[in-house]
Structure formats: structure tokens, C-alpha cells
Design goal:
- This protein is α/β, with parallel strands linked by helices.
- The protein folds into two domains: 220 residues, Rossmann fold, CATH 3.40.50; 255 residues, 3-Layer(aba) Sandwich (UDP-N-acetylmuramoyl-L-alanine:D-glutamate ligase), CATH 3.40.1190.
- 40% of the residues lie in helices and 17% in strands.
- It contains 18 helices and 19 strands.
- An eleven-stranded mixed beta sheet has the order 1-9-18-17-16-15-14-13-10-11-12, sandwiched between helices. It has an eight-stranded mixed beta sheet with strand order 4-3-2-5-6-7-8-19, sandwiched between helices.
- Helix 15 packs across helix 16 and helix 16 crosses helix 18.
- The C terminus is likely disordered.
- The structure holds ligand NPW and potassium ion.
- Potassium ion (K) binds next to strand 5 and strand 6.
- InterPro entries: Carbohydrate_kinase_pred_CS (IPR017953), CARKD (IPR000631), Nnr (IPR030677), Ribokinase-like (IPR029056), YjeF_N_dom (IPR004443), YjeF_N_dom_sf (IPR036652).
- Keywords: ATP-binding, Isomerase, Kinase, Lyase, Metal-binding, Multifunctional enzyme, NAD, NADP, Nucleotide-binding, Potassium, Transferase.
- GO terms for molecular function: ADP-dependent NAD(P)H-hydrate dehydratase activity; ATP binding; kinase activity; metal ion binding; NAD(P)HX epimerase activity.
């Protein structure tokens, strides 16, 4: 699913109005009817008080139009115009007149106005700002947002929580509305998925307002949301006459004394993701552990007992997963440097492999094209430097990706894969994945997918999806706390099977809250 920016949404509005020969006010009416239907379906005429806080632009216009439908159906409403500007949109004014025709007189809130009483069992409709926010809201508007938050009433935000920008983060933490539900038009927005802005909502849903599909389908977006439909189109089916050689040979290089388990997890995940053959390259102390824990894998040992000191093998893997449990011993750094100078095999680099790269930046230039890097936030910071906010992080990571021609996986609640200018936002996964070894499993899955013939970018997007889906399926039986990395591996098979279960409903709902 495409994640449009504000300019693209405004352009889609225009195109829809032209191609469907409707007025902009009719488009707003569609939005308002969808909002009303959503509420009415759930409230069924209940007498709960609904407070609608409406700005003076089109987001406010949506709120005012919704108020009219609620009034027509006998709901108990209070309507407030948050009068933060003299420049009102035409469609806001049209809808304000329609409301007044019904003898509903909104209360105009200005700086210093007394604020209406809102009970904790009431409902707030937040239609103050939409995607048009382009500067910090005035202090009195921020105060109003704080006041709404304190009321503890259920908050429904129209299109986007007011105070959130489409391409920035709020300057102060409470300068945006915290929504229980966001009812977003046509498509979710990128900010729903970033750690600093995703916290402003618990759930989001998409309301289809029938924007020009042809126009939308031709738009190129910087970001895409990755669900089942997106990864299915990349899935490589197994062939009847295949043999284990058909699905590639993965080599996992890593481990140090006390950290051999990381290699076991990666190698096992590579096998479960479908790699035909898997070999582990470990210090000598890892030999018995691997042969015992994972009989399916082959093992090549380093001359050193405790650390990787010289990467030397006479097999021809299709891809190498490098760095899990590696440590940063001086001999390991040298081994990695020598290895990168000679190596032409595609790489997936994780953990201490990444740390060694960030401490020896000259090595970055030695990575083969489209090397996949899977840093957690601290490792990412060591690679790309500190960032000011999530948008700055994305920009810096993209610059890094372009500079070194590498794919970067920014791990998080919604892991984002970046390559050049494009980003792919994952939708699977859960908080239980914040557990030891979870990253080693991801490295193994992606390595196993490259081995099978997936292009590096496809392997990364698909691997991140499968990793999260496997965890989502396993967590149904374990709960967040008891989910382990091994549990994630155990779910990979089911995650594959799930790809072919009933076709996915259009993505209309998402939960960001704890279970
Ligand atoms: N296709 C769709 O999805 C459809 C979308 N629709 C709806 O339209 C919404 C977008 O509406 P919108 O463009 O009128 O902007 P909105 O957010 O209401 O802001 C209003 C104005 O406030 C101003 N302003 C900005 N920051 C400010 C600040 N800090 N303090 C004071 N003023 C500030 C700024 O104007 P400026 O002052 O810069 O001229 C801005 O234009 C969208 O979210 C959705 O709800 C539907 O109706 C139909 C189809
Ligand atoms: K809003």
C-alpha cells in the first residue's frame, strides 16, 4: 500500500474532483458520511455526549459536516470552532452555514475562551488540524489539546491527530492530540508508523472516500506499507524437480566464546526460511555446540578457539550472513578487514559486524553492492551518526544507503527497510520481539532468502515481514513475555503457510497498543 505525502493527497483531491465531476464540497461530504457511518455503527444512537472540536480548514470542515449528520440522527452534540485563523476554507464555511440552518450554533473558541466541560465518558471528535498543519500551533491551542487529553474521554481524530505534521515531529511532546482512534482518509500516513509520532495514536483505520484510483495507482511514493499482498507478489514458488542445491547455500560467519548461540539461531533461521544448505563458520569452541544443536548445518571452524581470527573457507556459498555473536577482538577486526578486501559474495551484516564497520569506516567501501545491514537503533547511530528526530534519521539513513549502495533495515515496532530514496514500512511484529536473539533470527531469515534466489531488496522486505509474522503467530500461544528467538524460528513455517490463507482483506485496521 502506498503512503502518500500531503502534496500527493491534495493532487489526488483535484484529480478526483475533475475526473468524477464532483465539487470539493461533495468530496468533503463523502468524508463526513464515512465518519458518520463509522460512529453510528458503533453508537447505534446512544445518548453519549459527543464534543466536536473543529478547526477552520478542511479538517474542521469534515468535523462540522459530521456534526450535521449526527444532529440529523438525534445525537447529543457540542460543536466548537477552534478559531486559530481568520482564513477559513470555502468548504468549512459551506458546512458551517448548513449546520446553522439546523439551528446548531457552534461555540467559537479563541485565546482566553473558557473551555467546555468534557466528561470522561464523553467522546471527543478531533477535527482541529488535518494534513495542512505547517507550523507549530499557538500556545492556547496546545493548551486546549492538553485539556482534551486530561479529560480522559475517548478521542477520535479525523484523518490525523491534530498537531501531527505529515513530514516532521511536533516540537513539544504535548503539542498534538493523543487519539484512541484515527479515522484516516483513503490511506494511512507515514507518521502513524514512526516511533516519535506513532505514539499519538492507539488504533488507526482507513475510510475509503473514493479518490481517483487511476491517479493514485500512477503515483510513485517514497514509502510503501508492506502487508501480505505486497510480499506475496515477490514469493518464489518451489519447483517440483528442485533439489537442495537449487535453493542455495548460506554461510553464517560469527560467534565467539559465550556467544555461539547467536550463530545457532541465525543458521537455524536460514534453514527454516528455506536455504537449501547452511554452513556455520565459527571459532573452534563452537564446533560441538553447533553439531549438537543443529544437525542439519555443516560447520567450518576457525583456527582460533575463542574468536574468529582468519576467515578462510573452501566452499562457495551464495550469500554470507556476517557478524552475529562475533565480538570485536583485534584479531577478529583484522580477519574481517582482510575478508572484505577479497570478498565478492553478497553479504548480510549484523551486530558486531556492524560495530566493526562503524569503528573502521574505511571498510564500508569494501562492501559488495546491495549489502544488507540490519542495525538496531544503537548500531544505526554508530553507523550514520546522531539524528534530531525520526525524519532526520530517515534522511541520514537514505544518504548512507546511497553513499555505500547498501540496504538498511531500521529495526523498530514498524521496521523500515531503506534503499536509496525508497522506504518499505513493515506491518508485522509485536513487542514480544524485544528479546535476546531476535535480531540473529532476522539475519538468518534474510540470508536464507538471498540464498534461494530472492534479490537482496526483496529478500530484506520479505524477511522482515516473515520474521514479524512468525512472531505474531507464535505469540498467540506464548504472550509477549514468553516469546523467545527460538519461538520466532518455530513460527516461520506457519508464517509461510499464512501467505496462502484466505486473501487479505484491504488493510483497514491497525492496533498500536499493548495486548
Ligand atoms: N483527499 C482527502 O484526503 C480529503 C481531505 N479532507 C480533509 O482536508 C484536510 C486538509 O485540509 P486543509 O488543507 O484545509 O488543512 P487543515 O489541516 O484543515 O488546516 C487548515 C489550515 O490551517 C492553517 N495552518 C496550518 N498550521 C497552522 C497553525 N499552526 N496555526 C494556525 N493555522 C495553521 C493552514 O493554512 P495557512 O494559514 O498556512 O494558509 C491550513 O491550510 C485533511 O486532513 C482532511 O481532513 C476532506 O475534507 C476531503 C478529502
Ligand atoms: K485531526
Amino acid at each position: 500500500m502506498k503512503l502518500f505525502n500531503a502534496q500527493q493527497i491534495y493532487a489526488a483531491d483535484k484529480s478526483t474532483i475533475a475526473s468524477q465531476q464532483i465539487t470539493s464540497d461533495e468530496l468533503m461530504e463523502r468524508a463526513a458520511v464515512q465518519l458518520f457511518n463509522w460512529l453510528h455503527l458503533r453508537l447505534q444512537g446512544a445518548s453519549v455526549k459527543i464534543h466536536l472540536f473543529c478547526g477552520i480548514g478542511n479538517n474542521g470542515g469534515d468535523g462540522i459536516a459530521l456534526a450535521r449528520h449526527l444532529q440529523d440522527h438525534g445525537y447529543n452534540i457540542g460543536v466548537y470552532v477552534v478559531n486559530y485563523s481568520k482564513t477559513r476554507s470555502d468548504d468549512f464555511l459551506i458546512n458551517l452555514d448548513r449546520l446553522k440552518e439546523r439551528k446548531v450554533w457552534p461555540i467559537f473558541l479563541e485565546e482566553g475562551s473558557a473551555l467546555p466541560e468534557v466528561g470522561r465518558d464523553d467522546i471527543i471528535v478531533d477535527a482541529i488540524f488535518g494534513i495542512g498543519l505547517n507550523r507549530p500551533p499557538a500556545a492556547w491551542v496546545v493548551n486546549l489539546m492538553r485539556y482534551l487529553h486530561k479529560s480522559e474521554a475517548l478521542v477520535l481524530s479525523v484523518d490525523i491527530p491534530s498537531g501531527l505534521y505529515m513530514d516532521n515531529v511536533p516540537k513539544e511532546e504535548d503539542a498534538a492530540v493523543k487519539a484512541n482512534y484515527v479515522l484516516s482518509f483513503q490511506a494511512p500516513k507515514l507518521v502513524f508508523f514512526l516511533p516519535e509520532t506513532g505514539i499519538y495514536m492507539e488504533h488507526w483505520e482507513v475510510l475509503d472516500i473514493g479518490l481517483d484510483q487511476k491517479f493514485l495507482s500512477e503515483l510513485e511514493t517514497e514509502y510503501r506499507l508492506i502487508g501480505k499482498n505486497e510480499v506475496l507478489s515477490h514469493y518464489l514458488p518451489r519447483e517440483k524437480f528442485a533439489h537442495k542445491g537449487t535453493y542455495g547455500h548460506s554461510l553464517i560467519i560469527g560467534g565467539s566464546y559465550g556467544k555461539i548461540g547467536a550463530v545457532v539461531l541465525s543458521a537455524k533461521a536460514a534453514l527454516h526460511s528455506g536455504s537449501g544448505l547452511v554452513t556455520a563458520y565459527v571459532p573452534e569452541c563452537g564446533y560441538t555446540i553447533l553439531q549438537t544443536a543443529l544437525p542439519e548445518a555443516m560447520v567450518v571452524v576457525d583456527v582460533d578457539k575463542k574468536n574468529i581470527s582468519n576467515i578462510d573457507f573452501d566452499i562457495s556459498p551464495k550469500v554470507i550472513g556476517l557478524g552475529v555473536g562475533l565480538g570485536k577482538a583485534a584479531s577478529t577486526v583484522k580477519a574481517l578487514s582482510d575478508f572484505l578486501s577479497e570478498n565478492k559474495i553478497p553479504l548480510v551484516i549484523d551486530a558486531d559486524g556492524l560495530n566493526i564497520l562503524s569503528e573502521n569506516q574505511a571498510l564500508l567501501k569494501k562492501m559488495p553492492a546491495k549489502t544488507i545491514l540490519t542495525p538496531h537503533p544503537k548500531e544505526l547511530e554508530r553507523l550514520i551518526g546522531k539524528w534530531e528526530n525520526d525524519f532526520d534519521k530517515l534522511k541520514k539513513a537514505k544518504d548512507f544507503s546511497k553513499k555505500y549502495d547498501c540496504i538498511i533495515v531500521i529495526k523498530g515496532a514498524h521496521t523500515i527497510t531503506l534503499y536509496g530514496e525508497k522506504g518499505y514500512v513493515n506491518t508485522t511484529g509485536n513487542p514480544g520481539m524485544a528479546t535476546a536473539g531476535s535480531g540473529d533470527v532476522l539475519t538468518g531469515i534474510i540470508t536464507g532468502l538471498v540464498a534461494q534466489g530472492y534479490e537482496p531488496l526483496e529478500a530484506t522486505i520479505f524477511g522482515v515481514y516473515l520474521h514479524g509474522k512468525a512472531a505474531d503467530l507464535t505469540v498467540e500461544n506464548t504472550g509477549y513475555q514468553a516469546l523467545t528467538a527460538t519461538g520466532i524460528i518455530d513460527g516461520i513455517g506457519e508464517a509461510y503457510l499464512d501467505l496462502f490463507k484466505t486473501p487479505e482483506e484491504p488493510q483497514v485496521q491497525n492496533e498500536q497498543s499493548e495486548q
